[in-house]
Amino acid sequence: MVVRPVLITGAGKRIGLALARHFLAQQQPVIISYRTRYPAVAELEQAGAICLFGDFSTNEGIEKFANNVKQHCDGLRAIVHNASDWLAESPDSPPADTLAAMLQIHVNAPYLLNQYLEPLLRGHGHAGSDIIHFTDYVVERGSDKHIAYAASKAALDNMTRSFARKLAPEVKVNAIAPAMIMFNENDDAEYRKAALNKSLMKIAPGEQEIIGLVEYLLNSEYVTGRTHSVDGGRPLR
User: Fold this and answer.
1) Which of 2, 87, 132, 203 is deepest in the core (most CB within 10 A)?
2) Does the domain made of 6-236 have the CATH classification 3.90.1640.10?
């Protein structure tokens, strides 16, 4: 039996990269998208992943990427929408540009990819395929410095339920809303302390926390249309 690949967008670093490594270690075929060819992309290629350039800044680029995916497989086990950007409102950038960029990567890209690649997800039985959207904790509380970012992730959160309705029962569609999963190397001690104090659990749990949840969602035959918060109890602070 041919094992259908998992498609992970933006898997050149951090959580996307960790997920790609995890699946490859399980002999699960993986297709990733990248816009910047980070050193890890070559590592993934050597491990057997199909690594495809994807420019999601235009709808034409999204369609071109989807067509490229179709040339490499006849079916998908899952689409994990990890590609993201984190633009803040700034006097140096017109607000309309900031909003357009956030909507493009967090709304247009997953919406169009789900539509274009739907035929690859269908036809594999009850709960045979999955879509996972990565949203954000700020969907619940908003953000005064990243207004467009928060709004675009909120739209993606809502889209989770719409696609769950459309694609059931063949395809489960869920969202993961993380907060402070892992630090960047250049985060200083003061920032790390302040960030950890925002949650009840007071740790940065690392990518394994997300990997475990993704595996749970893929293995479920029943969970769909839900947002799964991974925030250490922040709303209770």
Assistant:
1) 132
2) no
